[in-house]
Amino acid sequence: MAAPKVAVVGAGVIGLSTALCIAETCPSCSVMVLSDQFSPNTTSDVAAGILIPHTYPGTPIHVQKQWFKETFTYLFAISNSAEASEAGIHLVSGWQVFKNTPKEELPFWSDVVLGFRPMSEAELQKFPQHRFGQAFTTLKCDCPPYLLWLEKRLKATGVQMYTRKVADLWELHSEYNIVVNCTGIGAHQLVGDEKLFPVRGQVLKVHAPWVKNFIRDGDGLTYIYPGIHRVTLGGTREKESWSLSPDPGTTKGIFDRCCSLEPSLRAAQDIKVKVGLRPSRQCVRLQREVLSQGGVKLPVVHNYGHGAGGFSVHMGTAKEAARLVGECIAALQGSSSRAKL
Ligand code: FAD
């Protein structure tokens, strides 16, 4: 069989990282990224990009932990290299604070992040409305620079990128041997996945260079995540809302909530508002499927549905998707050698 042609559909953090893993693990493949939007116009560009996992109820915890660990290890190495600032990756320390002590005082990811410990009484004095807290150091991606860095890595490995809206995965069967579906919330329409739903998120990106520590309310709604250039203030979680228009009342609410956690933010400047739709599902869809029409087959690998935690697990799920592509190639090679007999 000639070099397998692989189309990765989607150019958010999932599509780009998956294409990179496939190109690196299968150098004989010809990999292309097809997408109707690229950075800076994807959901991934809106994200805060902090590495604090979201829990997927339908995925075993040990699998989620493995995905997070692989992603953390990958980004930690970048943060510790000369490329850190271009890639937009940096370590950030801070606090997750709770109004009431959570049932689970040790989250499953506590031994993956660095220096996880309960907050001291003295630290908690900064948060008079909160009774319990966790201090740790994690990683943060500045999302648009990280996506551009991934695109640059892809071009350097010979991966080509084309702007194209795919109406039906089957339309790719005559041009490609394998299709990888990384379309995020777009999969709702593309493959008619009724289990996939949007969770709308509105965030503010502000200039406040004196804010150095992250602060996250344990309810997950209010957060302050300092990046290299701007601080992300959040947020909202609106299930089944498809609206991409910023809401001015929500902007004020987010700003007030964040100022009550970090009063110095009242002096923040140049407030920009962004909205994105988290591609949410009970579990990430990471599986093989074979489409078939009139005896012709097209192997597909799905990798979408990362909800509120795509940055936290992207390299782990990209590696698994690349492994599934390897299985598709082995199956194609098996069937082409059987056909020659
Ligand atoms: P997208 O980034 O949406 O990429 C999908 C791609 O597919 C796009 O390029 C799109 O153009 C393309 N596409 C779709 N349909 C088609 C089609 N038919 N044909 C061709 N191309 C198509 N996660 C974290 O881990 N940490 C955070 O701090 C964090 N903060 C967030 C804050 C907000 C406000 C939001 C909204 C999300 C946040 N997330 C965070 C979640 C994270 O952003 C997502 O999990 C992640 O971006 C999903 O990536 P994706 O590549 O699957 O989707």
From TrEMBL:
Annotated signal peptide: 1-19
Domain FAD dependent oxidoreductase: 5-324
GO biological process: D-amino acid catabolic process; L-aspartate catabolic process
Compartmental location: Cytoplasm, Cytosol; Peroxisome matrix
Residue positions binding FAD: 43-44, 166, 183
Keywords carried by this UniProt record: Cytoplasm, FAD, Flavoprotein, Oxidoreductase, Peroxisome, Signal
This protein's record includes keyword Signal: yes
Residues given in the record as D-dopa binding sites: 223, 278
Uppermost EC category: oxidoreductase
One GO MF term: D-aspartate oxidase activity
Coiled-coil stretches: none
A single Gene Ontology CC term: cytosol
Annotated catalysed reactions: D-aspartate + O2 + H2O = oxaloacetate + H2O2 + NH4(+); D-glutamate + O2 + H2O = 2-oxoglutarate + H2O2 + NH4(+)
Cofactor(s) the protein needs: FAD
E.C. numbers: 1.4.3.1
Pfam families: DAO (PF01266)
Family: Belongs to the DAMOX/DASOX family.
Biological role stated in the UniProt entry: Selectively catalyzes the oxidative deamination of acidic amino acids. Suppresses the level of D-aspartate in the brain, an amino acid that can act as an agonist for glutamate receptors. Protects the organism from the toxicity of D-amino acids. May also function in the intestine.
Protein name per its UniProtKB record: D-aspartate oxidase
Species this chain originates from: Pygoscelis papua
